TrEMBL record:
The organism of origin for this protein: Photobacterium lipolyticum
UniProt domain Pyruvate ferredoxin oxidoreductase beta subunit C-terminal: residue ranges: 231-274
Domain of life: Bacteria
One MF term in the entry's GO annotations: thiamine pyrophosphate binding
Residues annotated as domain Thiamine pyrophosphate enzyme TPP-binding: 44-191
UniProt protein name: 2-oxoglutarate oxidoreductase
InterPro entries cross-referenced by the UniProt entry: 2-oxoacid:Fd_oxidoreductase, PFO_beta_C, THDP-binding, TPP_enzyme_TPP-bd
């Protein structure tokens, strides 16, 4: 993996981000991604240090703004492999508008949300995915709101083309899911349940200790569940990833927690490939277009535009 490794990560010991970083570096190695053709874009948060730890190109952006930066990169350089790394606060709070429209635009990139249910970098504030009753600096008597489910929200956007869920304590499965996401042509949305031992020490303990409480979604072109993994994670379901209604039902389940590819539609066009008239590719072309449109407008004698 050394081709893709950079400095030693500064995340806390036991942080789930370490496992995700390794899974992503394995993916880069397996797919033989040229570092000079690969870019990681992030916002702000613990996980957003990700680009610093990859020996590819990277952009450590503003809080909640990773997606528009990545879209700018992709529209200008569609030949690059673009990955977007966000936290739950980053994507599901301040970045929500960008998230919804990124799914709608369906540009060819892989978006990974490391969801630990807390703001870790700023030291323990509730996030949109915090659980009811969760104690934090901003919810000293416990969070009172139903947490937002990033998978259900994404599935609710009609242009969604790839939606998956992984867990940091299942590194092989996480690697497989990220690989499928990368190979999908379009906007791939992967939520990774991520442990934060610093501020959410026990949130996923029950699921980590009991593999039966994880539901593996299988399908022909989906996860590669070898015999060893199959013996550990015996709770499996054959799932058709084109079935959005079933995906919605599965996504709403909290126990067991589903992991795998919930939904995939390879037929949605990518925004960067939608045909734009050649004449619109230059500023002169845009001016000519606007002038022609203006000429179509007539003004009646009373001044109202028709
Ligand atoms: Fe990881 Fe939590 Fe530490 Fe941030 S605060 S690096 S999320 S363990």
């Amino acid at each position: 993996l050394e081709d893709y490794q950079c400095v030693v990560p500064r995340w806390c010991v036991g942080c789930g981000d370490h496992g995700v970083l390794t899974a992503v570096q394995r993916l880069c190695r397996d797919e033989k991604l040229p570092p000079e053709k690969t870019v990681f874009v992030s916002g702000i948060g613990c996980s957003s240090r990700f680009p610093h730890y990859m020996s590819t190109y990277g952009f450590h952006g503003l809080h909640g703004r990773a997606l528009p930066i990545a879209e700018g990169v992709k529209i200008k350089r569609p030949d690059l492999n673009v990955f977007v790394i966000m936290g739950d606060g980053d994507c599901c709070s301040i970045g929500t508008a960008h998230w919804i429209h990124a799914v709608r635009y369906n540009m060819n990139m892989t978006a990974i949300v490391l969801d630990n249910g807390i703001y870790g970098l700023t030291k323990n504030q509730a996030s949109p995915t915090s659980q009811i009753g969760q104690i934090s600096n901003t919810t000293p008597t416990g969070s009172r709101l139903e947490p937002l489910n990033p998978i259900s929200v994404t599935l609710g956007i009609s242009n969604a083309s790839f939606v998956a869920q992984a867990a940091d304590w299942m590194p092989d499965v996480t690697h497989d899911i990220i690989q499928q996401a990368f190979r999908h042509k379009g906007f791939s949305f992967v939520r990774i349940l991520q442990r934060c031992p610093e501020f959410q020490a026990h949130r996923y303990d029950d699921w980590v200790r009991d593999p039966e409480r994880m539901l593996l979604l299988k399908h022909d072109n989906g996860l590669h569940i070898g015999p060893e993994l199959g013996r550990v994670y015996r709770n499996q379901e054959l799932h058709d990833p084109s079935d959005r209604n079933r995906a919605r039902e599965i996504a709403s389940g909290h126990d067991p927690i589903p992991v795998g590819i919930l939904y995939k539609n390879p037929n949605i066009p990518c925004y960067e490939e939608l045909q734009v008239p050649d004449t619109m590719n230059t500023s002169e072309g845009v001016s000519d277009f606007l002038e022609a449109e203006f000429d179509k407008v007539t003004i009646n004698p009373k001044g109202a535009t028709i």
